Amino acid sequence: MRKEFSYADARPSGIVLSETESDIIEAAALKLAAQYADYSLHSTDLLHAVELAAAALPSRVRRALIAFRDESNAAGTLLLRGLPLGSLPATPDRVEDEPAWTEVAVATLGQLMVMSVLGRSISYSDEKSGNLVQDVSPKRGAEKRQENSGSILLELHTEDGFHPAAPHFLSLICLRGDRDGRAATVTGGIGDVLPHLDGETVAALRRPEFRTRFSTSFVHDTDEEVLTPPVPVLSGPEGRPDLRVDFHGTVGTTPAARAALAELEDAVLGSLRGIVLRPGELIILDNRRTVHGRTGFTPRYDGADRWLRRSFALADLRPVLDDLGEGRSHNAITARRPARGLAAAAAA
Ligand SMILES: O=C(O)CCC(=O)C(=O)O
Ligand SMILES: [Fe+2]
């Protein structure tokens, strides 16, 4: 396994919010939090109120989000800096200690306001208890897992690329940075990478000859490997393809596919952007246009470890309405309902 990523610093490209702008968002979040304190974050009423409250975001930020939503960019990422966080409890180092949304209301509602400009917030009941906004903090005993609860290097991946309704966008807001300044979130945008790929590699990546292992965070009840049917890594318009790959979990099913995957990985590794997130910074990833990963770091489990919160959005809820259980949580597709999972994945 690779030991480090090298990357160009993404921080200078960030949109910086002024203190006044941040205060306006905080006030809007606090008002919502007071009004909806008894609601689940999955409540349609609350989520519609969040969408209305997104008017509190500065118009230049909303414009940037709208442009990113519609056209993406070469990096497949957008960085906002200076978002309000409100008061914060200790970083949870056990799942049982993860806070209710009301304990991190300002950060959570601000993040959901931003996401509401990009799409519809959604979660996956297979993963992280189906929470609409999920804690990303190192968990005791999970250090070596290829999941966001781990602390070894996390390989570059499309988020839930094995899932028939993978998120179109995800965001990570930093509540607490890595005190050692080591944990960097890195991204490899297909717009940056494509010019470095030859025609033969691109043609191979467009053939349905790649299978991706379901993440261990989705497959709980079995030791068996669950793989998608063969699908392409690149799809869509020639000049602006979509990318779906996990360099930990995707395998080529032919020699040409394996060679193309290795070429792609080299090109991505040569084009990485990255940032050691600081409090109040929120990175948005266009999950169809970039892969992401994280360098390794050392947790101390003393309440002051790195802590991000993650949320997902789909561009359109209609195609998945029948698959949503309570609120905006996508029904299980894996071990608990294997037949459906495989059929759904095959249709993807
Ligand atoms: O910790 C990070 O910076 C990224 C983790 C990750 O890949 C995720 O939460 O989806
Ligand atoms: Fe991820």
From TrEMBL:
Positions of the TauD/TfdA-like domain: 123-311
Keyword tags: Dioxygenase, Iron, Metal-binding, Oxidoreductase
Highest rank taxon of the organism: Bacteria
Gene Ontology MF, one: dioxygenase activity
Pfam family, one: TauD
Region (Disordered) residue spans: 129-148
Composition-biased stretches (Basic and acidic residues): 137-147
Keyword Ligase attached: no
Gene3D superfamilies in UniProt: Clavaminate synthase-like (3.60.130.10)
Protein family per UniProt: Belongs to the clavaminate synthase family.
Protein name, UniProt field: TauD/TfdA family dioxygenase
Organism field: Streptomyces erythrochromogenes
